[in-house]
């Protein structure tokens, strides 16, 4: 089973930056990494995706400010967040779905990391 551990959240002033990390344990043959975020009372919102081949996509609300990247050797995905706004405040979740080295499909979520942006 693939488990995800997120880190990098915290409190930052508007206009500041943070980098989130999501490290996956276990053998991953091929996976698509995504970041989501959620605020109380709202549905989880998709933020960004990086495909196995490296192509990326972003929600319009973060385009030009967030950058997703991955280190396949470390099974780790990053979310560099710049020019943060108070509306970026949320719990950020990492999601990975794909196939393990043993050929088994999986869909795993991290525990979430809080990002708070003060105005």
Textual characterization of the structure:
The model has no long low-confidence stretch (mean pLDDT 94). The protein has no helices and 11 strands. Strand 5 and strand 6 (56-58) form a beta hairpin. The termini are far apart. With 119 residues, the chain is mainly β. Helices cover 0% and strands 60% of the residues. The chain has strands at residues 3-7, 10-13, 18-25, 28-38, 45-50, 56-58, 66-71, 76-81, 90-100, 105-109, 113-118. The strands form 2 sheets. Strands 2, 4, 5, 6, 9, 10 and 11 form a 7-stranded mixed beta sheet that branches.
Short description:
The protein is mainly β. It has strands at residues 3-7, 10-13, 18-25, 28-38, 45-50, 56-58, 66-71, 76-81, 90-100, 105-109, 113-118.
